Structures are given as structure tokens and as C-alpha cells.
Amino acid sequence: MRIAVYLPLLLSLLAPLGARVMSERCEPRLATWLLTVSALVLGAASTLSLGLLAITGLIRVPLLADLGHWSVHAVQRDDPTHLWVAMIAGLLLGGAVLAVGRMLWTRARSLAAAAQQAACMPAHDGLVVIEDDTPDAYALPGLPGRVVVSTGMLHLLDDGEHDILLAHERAHLAAHHYLFVALAGLGAAANPLLRPLAAAVTYTVERWADERAAAATGDRVRVARTVGKAALAAPHTPGGRLPGHALGILGHRGLPRGAGPVPRRVAALLAPPLRHRPEIAVAAGAVLAVVACSIADATRDLHLLLELIGV
User: pLDDT by residue (tens digit) across 152-161?
Assistant: First the structure.
């Protein structure tokens, strides 16, 4: 456990670099999968690392050592982990468990509310039009989901742009993009170092929907123009209508006009489509394999330590 147990935590420091490479150089669908799986695996592995380190502190407590038939003296002699490291790991583990529990509870309530809200909305072919002069459009998950569009957005766009808007929002529902966002957020809740991965997923799902809209309409330039047009017309302040679990062509709400990921999305649409990059997938898989092996090795070492200090 001298090195292996710390590897998941150390590799989490590479999250900003990995998020940038995968989101900018990978085809959006593949990038979303890689980012989400990476966030989940690294989040789980770092939590297990903290748990293993915390256990090395618990077995030093005389009462627990007696219950487990371990020698406290042998622990102090053979355990390479310092007590203060184990104590910090225990505190971080407690914070991670609380953050994950809170995130799961909040997301479950949010999705349940979304499903109830979607079921109560009268829709034609899954489309709900609301009377509101503020340009707005988003996909609301449910059974089935709904595409919600304001009259302000419909008045802003022409007929061809309406088709692009609907293709984008329906892509969110068809590919269940809200689940990718939720799962990546779960990994980031367990390990705050992984927040760049979760943030990148919110970008790549929008890019995924953009590409689906471009494939459906066959006009990448017009899709880029529609994305930019909708973003420029959005209000400066976040609207109160868009639920946190919904996704829309406007992307992340509450950003100033022209800021955030929208210019990057427009630039990507004006460029040729990204081709598949198997080398990035292989590199990400190799990192995750190292993480899994390090956790397995650290767990084996702890098991051997417990056998060694047994009385």
C-alpha cells in the first residue's frame, strides 16, 4: 500500500487534461462515454482508496483491534501508512459519502419531478409549446420525455431552424443525455478533482446533439447559425423555467451572451466532423486499467497486513 493505494488519487489530478483532450479531439458520442466512464471509475476508485487508508487507522484503535484479534503493536510496526494520513483519509471519505448521498437524493427527486411534470404536459408528437416571449427550449426527461419550446423561440427562428431545434432536443431525449450528466456528476461528487470531467460531459452532450441535428438536416453551417442565434437571444440571467435536469440548445444557463461553450460548439460545427480517435480511447482505457489494478493490489496488501498482524 505504499504506492498503489495513492494512484487513483494522483491520477485524478490529470482530470483537467483528460477532459480537454477528450472533449476537443474526440467525436462527441465517444467523448461522452469516455468522460462518463472515467468519472465513475476514478470516483469509485478514489473512494475505495480513502476507505483502505481509513481502515489502517481504525485497526490501530485498541477496542477495534481486540474485536478483530489484531496486534496494535504489530500494526504500528508493519503498517507503512502514517496515522495522520489515515485520519485525513477518514475525514475525506466521510465527506465523499455525504456528497454522493446528497447528490443521489437530489437527482432522484429531480428526475421524479421531471417525469411527473412531463406526464402532465399535453403534447403533440412529444412537443410542448409554452406561451412565453423569452426564447427558451429544452428537453425534459420523462416517460415519455417532452421537448418544451417557448413561443419566443419559435418566433425567433424560421421553419428550417425549427427543424434543427427539434432535432437537437430530440437527440437529448433519444440518447438519454441526462443520465450521462448525472453519472459524471456522481463521480465528481465522490471526488471533487473530477469536476472538469463532469463539466466536459455537459459540453459533449450538447456537441452530440448538435452533430445529430447536423446529420438530420445535412447542413452544418445552418446548425451552427441556429445555435449561435438561439444563444445570442437568450437572457443574461438564468431563467426560472429550465429545470436542472433538463438539457437544451442554449447549453449552460446563466452565462453572459457569447460566453461559455457556445462559441466552441459553433466553431466545431463550422469545421469538418471529428473522426474517431481510437488512440485516445486506448489511452483512457489504459489509465482506468492502471487504476483498477492499483486498487486490487492495495486491497490485497491490506488483506496480507491484516493476516500478518493477527494474533
Answer: 999 998 988 9
